[in-house]
Write a structure and sequence with these properties.
mainly alpha
Length: 171
């Protein structure tokens, strides 16, 4: 049976506890252990975004890709909520398919980071129309992800369709 959007949201909230702990640990390391990391966010926009990508997006994406694959059968939140990512045959997904799913899932998240760095770099000036269109596209994609999970009969998101996966309740 398909897992609905609310059970998936609760699973993500459980996962976000771990993500938050990681972010707090990362902040403590950046302040007290390796304060030079902070300088990477104060120079070039490209360096700042790449640093954020490597320190936050990659580890969070790896967490979901690895734990949602057949090797663990679900992230902490998915296990807690008794749901699992499976392929179209109902079998646990391999690591590659899980990684593709997560890349598609977090693309709008990373694009929004890209946009924020560009807007901050823009300063107090007028916002170029291209950035406004990009922002509308990013948030439109996020809305589409949620809308497909709510309105599709099998509760699949667009990124689940594209990756050939679905999230089901475990028996």
């Amino acid at each position: 049976m398909a897992a609905g959007v609310w059970i998936r949201a609760r699973a993500f909230l459980w996962d976000y506890l771990w993500i938050s702990l990681y972010l707090v640990l990362l902040a403590l390391v950046a302040v007290f252990v390796v304060p030079d990391i902070q300088g990477l966010f104060q120079g070039s926009l490209v360096v700042a975004q790449l640093t954020g990508f490597l320190l936050v997006t990659v580890p969070v994406s790896l967490y979901f890709a690895v734990f949602d694959s057949k090797h663990f059968n679900g992230s902490f939140g998915k296990v807690k909520m008794k749901i699992q990512v499976v392929d179209s045959n109902g079998k646990a997904v391999n690591l590659m398919r899980s990684a593709v799913r997560i890349a598609l899932k977090f693309t709008p998240w990373e694009l929004s980071h890209f946009l924020v760095y560009r807007l901050v770099g823009n300063g107090e000036g007028n916002i170029p129309a291209i950035w406004m269109w990009l922002g509308a596209g990013i948030y439109g994609l996020l809305f589409l992800y949620v809308l497909t999970a709510v309105l599709s009969k099998d509760k699949r998101t667009l990124y689940d369709w594209l990756s050939g996966t679905k999230v089901i309740k475990k028996a």
